[in-house]
Design goal:
The chain is an alpha+beta fold. 36% of the residues lie in helices and 20% in strands. The chain is built from eight helices and 14 strands. The protein is globular, with a radius of gyration of 20 Å.
């Protein structure tokens, strides 16, 4: 805080939520009364917050290309880093937003679509590459990135194959041997595949409003086929009004329904790796459904 000229800054109030891998709080500058939202973790910054900070900045840049009335409010990032000393943990400092519940669903849908539809300014996605400049996390799970020309291969190798390897489950391995070579078959509808910045972990807990403006936060961003955003829609409570707004900007592609369980599979596998339990059955069921969808054609 001192390095940025904010002077003495003190924690104000209790926690604003958190997880098993990060804690949050509000901090206030003594003189200016400027407020900050701070996340801390026992993990090193390059393993936890560097990717989140880069993702927030990428989403904010894409959102700000839209008109005010159709813009997502993404918190500004002030900085992130490690506390002093090895193994001392890390922090992420952001703009503090006065958050509220969900607002107008149609407006929210249009705002997300505008972010997806924004023209990338980074050289790699502007040249048609998928991925991200840094590795990040999806929950507590490492999410490898890098840059890649081939979207189906990227999603197969850096998303599905990665989660399958983490699971170490014989039944999942057997299904993966059949499904992974078929991933390109989900993209045979002739639709162009272009990189869009996606939130990457868009569930109900990461959605709200800031002074009435739709807002999303706690991302696992990368430049992806925009439909990959909906792999978490099973727990995002996105109703008809949201989809009406979204589809006004980005119409549904012919192969969307075919691909949707494939995109959900990534997140169900991740939930199995994080939490175990019934997510194993959900992941296996989706793998079987995906195989039926490509076998039926």
């Amino acid at each position: 805080f001192a390095a940025n000229g904010w002077g003495e800054v003190r924690k104000s109030g209790g926690s604003f939520g958190g997880s098993g891998w990060a804690s949050t709080g509000k901090w206030v500058a003594d003189e200016s009364k400027e407020t900050f939202f701070v996340k801390t973790s026992s993990r090193a910054c390059d393993k936890m917050f560097a990717g989140e900070a880069a993702g927030l900045r990428a989403m904010r840049e894409a959102a700000e290309a839209s008109a005010d009335e159709e813009r997502l409010k993404i918190p500004r990032v002030y900085g992130c880093g490690d506390f002093d000393g090895p193994g001392s943990g890390s922090f992420l400092i952001m703009e503090f937003l006065e958050m509220g519940g969900r607002g107008d669903a149609r407006r929210f849908g249009r705002a997300v679509a505008r972010m997806h539809d924004a023209t990338p300014t980074q050289a790699e996605p502007a040249a048609g590459k998928f991925g991200f400049a840094v590795d990040n996390t999806i929950g507590a799970t490492p999410q490898p990135n890098g840059w890649h020309d081939d979207w189906p291969a990227f999603f197969r190798d850096y998303r599905l194959k990665h989660q399958v390897a983490l699971a170490g489950d014989a039944a999942i391995d057997r299904l993966a041997e059949k499904l992974l070579p078929r991933v390109p078959d989900f993209f045979d509808d002739g639709q162009p595949l272009k990189p869009s910045i996606i939130h990457g972990d868009l569930w109900s807990g990461n959605i709200g409003t800031a002074n009435g403006q739709p807002s999303i936060f706690d991302p696992a961003c990368y430049f992806a086929h925009h439909e990959a955003e909906w792999g978490m829609s099973w727990c995002a409570s996105l109703g008809p009004a949201f989809w009406e707004g979204y589809r006004e900007v980005i119409p549904e592609a012919p192969g969307f329904k075919k691909r949707r369980p494939l995109y959900e599979l990534y997140h169900q596998l991740n939930h199995y790796n994080l939490f175990g339990g019934g997510y194993r059955g959900a992941a296996i069921g989706l793998m079987e459904e995906c195989l039926r969808r490509v076998d039926d054609e």
